[in-house]
């Protein structure tokens, strides 16, 4: 291929711009492995990077996209050979290193995972960083010995990528899931993903009480800010809260009361630099417990030429589920 399509983000003194362009192979970073990308994804972090709403990108120009899946076309790493199906989530790709919103990518072997046999490249990106993060949250819940019999598990931002997959995984593992969303139109959809009950996000988004009635044995929070504080305040004695997102904000207007009076645990979930061992555990969980029919109902597929116009919709909460980018249409 003499040239390939990619989204390229540039910045100068006058403007910040994300545009689809044509690049030559010589413009790829000098890394030991090259991948013919088949699918990428549009995540919340990608939307921030593409719009410039947050300083996600560290170096310019840069190809965004924290996820990619495709086939190895060149390898100087003995762990991977030409033709291998691979995927990548995180490792600073799409932030400080060229990412997946491109028909070609140059990466390092330590960033790659072999594509699980049970998933196609499209399915792997339908899951992507969002689903893998949801699986990390579920692993943490189980690691802290929160069992289905212990009570309801709350998922905030449930109509988003992380939230919707967390709902499905938890339900399939036998937990009773309460989904929180600001989209009343998605109540039936969330129940089809496995939610036993759906509450409006306003029940959680503005409370400033240090303690509230005990409701949750566990929480998967994708929102942060007042919602996370409210979730902590209403978590039952010995419960566990997983914090993995900041859609509402990075602040945490809480008190120590839930921690010292109820002994709850707040667990931070990092998907970017998580160990390979933990990544394999997360993808194994997804292979066993994520419902494939539900996965198909979670995804919207777009082309590279639609990415820039969809990014503001993601930040505004107008999208649901997972947005998969087919880089070759």
TrEMBL record:
- Which EC number applies? 1.-.-.-
Its top-level enzyme class, in one word, is oxidoreductase
**Which keywords annotate this record?**
Oxidoreductase
Q: Which GO terms describe its molecular function?
A: oxidoreductase activity
Q: Which residues form the signal peptide?
A: none
Ranges where the Enoyl reductase (ER) domain occurs: 11-325
Q: Which InterPro entries match?
A: Acrylyl-CoA_reductase_AcuI, ADH-like_C, ADH-like_N, ER, GroES-like_sf, NAD(P)-bd_dom_sf, Zn-ADH-like_protein
Q: PANTHER family, alphabetically?
A: ACRYLYL-COA REDUCTASE ACUI-RELATED, SHORT-CHAIN DEHYDROGENASE/REDUCTASE
Q: What is this protein called?
A: MDR family oxidoreductase
> Which taxonomic lineage is given here?
Bacteria, Pseudomonadati, Pseudomonadota, Gammaproteobacteria, Oceanospirillales
């Amino acid at each position: 291929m003499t040239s390939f399509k990619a989204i390229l983000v540039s910045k100068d003194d006058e403007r910040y711009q994300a545009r689809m362009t044509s690049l030559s192979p010589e413009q790829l970073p000098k890394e030991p492995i090259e991948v013919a990308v088949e699918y990428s994804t549009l995540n919340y972090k990608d939307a921030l990077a593409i719009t410039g709403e947050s300083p996600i990108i560290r170096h310019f120009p840069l190809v965004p996209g924290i996820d990619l899946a495709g086939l190895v076309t060149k390898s100087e790493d003995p762990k991977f050979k030409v033709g291998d199906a691979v995927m990548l989530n995180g490792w600073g790709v799409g932030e400080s290193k060229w990412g997946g919103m491109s028909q070609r990518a140059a990466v390092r072997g330590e960033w790659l995972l072999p594509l699980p046999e049970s998933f196609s490249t499209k399915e792997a990106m339908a899951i992507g960083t969002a689903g893998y993060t949801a699986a990390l949250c579920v692993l943490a819940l189980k690691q802290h010995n929160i069992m289905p019999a212990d009570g309801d598990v709350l998922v905030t931002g449930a109509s988003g990528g992380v939230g919707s997959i967390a709902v499905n995984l938890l339900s399939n593992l036998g937990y009773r899931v309460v989904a929180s969303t600001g989209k009343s139109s998605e109540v039936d959809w969330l129940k089809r993903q496995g939610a036993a009950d759906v509450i409006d996000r306003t029940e959680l988004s503005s409370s400033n009480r240090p303690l509230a009635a005990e409701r949750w044995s566990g929480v998967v929070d994708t929102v942060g800010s007042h919602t996370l504080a409210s979730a902590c305040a209403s978590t039952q004695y010995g419960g566990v809260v997983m914090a993995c997102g900041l859609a509402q904000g990075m602040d945490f207007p809480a008190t120590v009361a839930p921690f010292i009076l109820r002994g709850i645990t707040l667990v931070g979930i990092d998907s970017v630099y998580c160990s390979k061992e933990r990544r394999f555990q997360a993808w194994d969980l997804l292979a066993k417990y994520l419902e494939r029919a539900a996965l198909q109902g979670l995804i919207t597929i777009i082309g590279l030429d639609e990415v820039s116009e969809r990014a503001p919709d993601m930040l505004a909460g107008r999208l649901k589920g997972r947005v998969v980018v087919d880089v070759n249409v």
